[in-house]
């Protein structure tokens, strides 16, 4: 592939008077969707040139079109074509496989953007964002606490303190009092201090990944624009100057979450040592020192929570300022307290021996309780927002955000419980030498079989509904392809594809049932963990024995399932690190999940749109300014979402030279339903008014794309009606002598309607450059 760095596009299309000649250029800017594409595939030519960009994301042209603007007299068929390739933002090198570990953070970040549409409820909207940020903070604490459970409790405290376990794992021999003859490292406090390096390293790794990905992906500044007032009716937030540049908030949240992780490690070490110091064998000076250290930890934890609560996103202006003192001092303060905690725990304490579990079991129960309360409060706030501006198409009647936040907490619990259970089983070969993980994590494993039964029952119901829909589609296929002899197998395949494509619309039901069941079963696990050690009355002994036996069976099965899931998770990540095709599959997940900026969790995978949207905006604005020509931005699948977001960022005068062509687009079907505040009916209608013209192509066989359902009151219809035929021909014809494939979500350009709609869009663009600052639709 030939490459030309930063090719300067020039044009002679303008006359000396500044008016456009009749030969003004036309450009089609292609944006691919999930899974990525090569410029050769997008442009249909093996010889392509990089016009602008780098190895991460770039704009390409055919070699023959490099200087097409300077040759207006050439006879061309169709517009100049450019391809924006952004797949390396999400599915590039093997380190992307590590992002699987950040899945709960990504999911809770999505919950922030799923709030319902609301007007004149600023405080309620801010409170919604606050609750999601607090839920994200609990996930960071949970992940680090799970690392502490594995390293400090299971390995350093229980296994190293038990001769039978230490003998099976000789690498722990220098920490075992029985095997190392009471060496310096075998003291319980020093073992804990050494093991604390593992969760500390995890926290530092998360901080490093967040900082590094910001500098590589999200540091691209949008086009400079004036700050906008807070109160502007019907203004989409995606068009605000600072929407795609959340540098200040990410830096604050990164500092707060890093400090929270370090404080969690410090608390795990301090509480264990202070618990012994306050006992009968403890030392009064050390006990007082432990109280002071615990007070300092609680004080700094309060500051962390305050920082998370204090500030949300700033979208009305390009906020380039950083709270440098806060960003630097908060993690350093937590690191200093951690160092003091390690010194405090490492102090010699005669008579301190490790037995049972560390006294930190209630921490997991407290985290689970706080997460449940936050999700319930979030559901109440979301319901209040939805009532102010009801949207009948919104997923779960506006409760999509709380449901997704619940799933994020459940993912965090399953990952932490799975790691703890697997490590415990690995260390404890006999199952009797160590106490194992906290009781709550065991009870969380017990609810997994019940949750799977609920999900499988729901999937069976959806499968039955799809089968019934397939039967009704058989008649519809016959009507859509009249004449000729029908092939039952061909008709059945088309009908099945159409029926399967509708499963996407049942996503809200699946999420609603799963999240509700997770909340109820999680509450049951909390109650079960709380009552485990209680002795039942005689009248209830028989019933208690039955419940206890059922719980043990469910716990064993759940533990096995968690272990299997953890193994599959690690195997998938390892395969993705080595296999490019598997890595691309993971990239598709991030294409959908990391479109949004990191507003709730700084350790989530990076937002590729904070690089892609400015790229597209700069390209469209500079080309139309330099040439005065017409531009069609053509987006497929996720590329249509990027195209719409970039169109929102253009100034009104620039937007009047741009037409929007979307196909296989999830703008309304997925984004409009799950993110109603940003892609709901009001936002899409506003976009239809602001761009000069917009057409959307879709198929009934497409499981992702669909109509955008914009009202025709504000201009011509957006959706192509009827939907595109798929396949193009039912049987063999002179034009298609071989059977036409069922394309579904791919290859929309193969339909003749694609070229026809593109030419209509170019013809609709006004032949004059509107004056700067103009707005409104064209009269065409």
Automatic annotation (TrEMBL):
Q: Where is this region: Disordered?
A: 1-22, 219-239, 759-780
Source domain of life: Bacteria
**Keywords, sorted A to Z:** Membrane, Transmembrane, Transmembrane helix
The membrane spanning regions, by residue number, are: 127-147, 192-209, 255-274, 286-309, 330-347, 367-386, 398-420, 440-462, 509-530, 557-574
Q: Which InterPro entries does the record associate with it?
A: AB_hydrolase_fold
What protein is this chain from? Answer: Integral membrane protein
Which species? Streptomyces prunicolor
């Amino acid at each position: 592939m030939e490459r030309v760095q930063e090719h300067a596009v020039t044009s002679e299309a303008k006359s000396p008077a500044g008016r456009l000649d009749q030969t003004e250029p036309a450009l089609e800017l292609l944006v691919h969707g999930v899974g990525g594409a090569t410029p050769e595939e997008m442009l249909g030519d093996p010889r392509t040139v990089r016009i602008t960009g780098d190895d991460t994301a770039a704009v390409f042209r055919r070699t023959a079109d490099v200087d097409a603007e300077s040759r207006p007299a050439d006879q061309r068929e169709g517009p100049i074509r450019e391809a924006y390739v952004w797949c390396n933002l999400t599915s590039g090198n093997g380190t992307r496989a590590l992002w699987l570990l950040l899945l709960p953070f990504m999911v809770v970040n999505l919950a922030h953007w799923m709030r319902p549409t609301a007007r004149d409820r600023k405080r309620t909207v801010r409170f919604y964002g606050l609750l999601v940020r607090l839920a994200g903070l609990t996930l960071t604490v949970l992940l680090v606490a799970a690392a502490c459970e594995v390293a400090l409790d299971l390995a350093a405290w229980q296994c190293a303190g038990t001769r039978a376990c230490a003998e099976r794992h000789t690498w722990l021999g220098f920490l075992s009092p029985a095997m190392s003859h009471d060496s310096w490292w075998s003291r319980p406090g020093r073992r804990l201090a050494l093991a604390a390096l593992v969760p500390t390293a995890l926290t530092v790794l998360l901080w490093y990944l967040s900082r590094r990905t910001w500098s590589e992906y999200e540091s691209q500044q949008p086009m400079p624009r004036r700050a906008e007032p807070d109160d502007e009716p019907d203004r989409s937030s995606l068009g605000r100057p600072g929407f795609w540049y959340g540098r200040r908030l990410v830096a604050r949240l990164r500092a707060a979450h890093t400090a929270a992780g370090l404080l969690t490690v410090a608390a795990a070490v301090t509480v264990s040592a202070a618990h012994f110091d306050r006992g009968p064998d403890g030392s009064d000076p050390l006990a007082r020192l432990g109280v002071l250290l615990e007070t300092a930890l609680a004080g700094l934890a309060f500051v962390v929570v305050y920082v998370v609560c204090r500030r949300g996103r700033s979208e009305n202006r390009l906020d380039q300022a950083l709270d440098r003192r806060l960003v630097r001092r908060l993690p350093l303060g937590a690191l200093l307290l951690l160092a003091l905690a390690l010194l405090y725990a490492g102090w010699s304490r005669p008579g301190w021996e490790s037995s049972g579990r560390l006294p930190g079991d209630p921490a997991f129960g407290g985290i689970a309780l706080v997460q449940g309360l936050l999700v319930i409060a979030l559901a109440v706030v979301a319901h209040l927002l939805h009532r102010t501006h009801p949207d009948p198409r919104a997923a779960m009647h506006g409760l999509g955000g709380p449901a997704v936040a619940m799933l994020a907490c459940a993912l965090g619990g399953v990952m932490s419980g799975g790691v703890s259970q697997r490590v415990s089983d690995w260390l404890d070969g006999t199952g009797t030498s160590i106490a194992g993980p906290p009781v709550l994590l065991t009870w969380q494993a017990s609810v997994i079989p019940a949750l799977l039964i609920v999900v499988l029952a729901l999937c069976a119901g959806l499968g039955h509904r799809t089968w019934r829909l397939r039967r009704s589609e058989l008649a519809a296929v016959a009507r859509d392809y009249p004449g000729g002899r029908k092939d039952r197998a061909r008709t059945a395949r088309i009908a099945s594809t159409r029926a399967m494509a509708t499963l996407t619309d049942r996503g809200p039901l699946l999420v609603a049932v799963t999240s509700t069941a997770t909340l109820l079963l999680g509450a049951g696990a909390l109650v079960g963990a709380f009552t485990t050690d209680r002795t039942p009355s005689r009248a209830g002994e028989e019933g208690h024995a039955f419940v206890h036996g059922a719980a043990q069976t469910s716990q064993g099965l759940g533990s096995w399932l968690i272990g299997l899931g953890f193994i599959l998770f690690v195997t998938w990540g390892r395969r993705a690190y080595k296999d490019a095709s598997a890595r691309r599959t993971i990239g598709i997940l991030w294409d959908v999940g990391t479109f949004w900026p990191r507003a709730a969790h700084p350790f989530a995978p990076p937002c590729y749109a904070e690089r892609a949207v400015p790229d597209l905006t700069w390209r469209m604005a500079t080309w139309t300014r330099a040439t005065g020509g017409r531009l069609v931005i053509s987006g497929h699948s996720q590329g249509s979402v990027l195209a719409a977001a970039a169109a929102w960022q253009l100034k009104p005068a620039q937007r009047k030279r741009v037409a929007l062509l979307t196909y296989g687009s999830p703008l309304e079907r997925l984004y409009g339903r799950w993110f109603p505040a940003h892609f709901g009916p009001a936002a899409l209608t506003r976009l239809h008014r602001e761009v000069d013209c917009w057409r959307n192509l879709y198929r009934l066989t497409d499981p992702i794309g669909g109509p955008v359902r914009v009202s025709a009151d504000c201009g011509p219809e957006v959706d192509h009606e009827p939907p595109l035929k798929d396949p193009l021909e039912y049987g063999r014809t002179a034009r298609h002598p071989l059977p036409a494939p069922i394309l579904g979500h791919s290859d929309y350009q193969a339909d003749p309607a694609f070229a026809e709609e593109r030419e209509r869009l170019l013809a609709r663009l006004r032949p004059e450059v509107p004056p700067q600052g103009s707005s409104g639709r064209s009269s065409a």
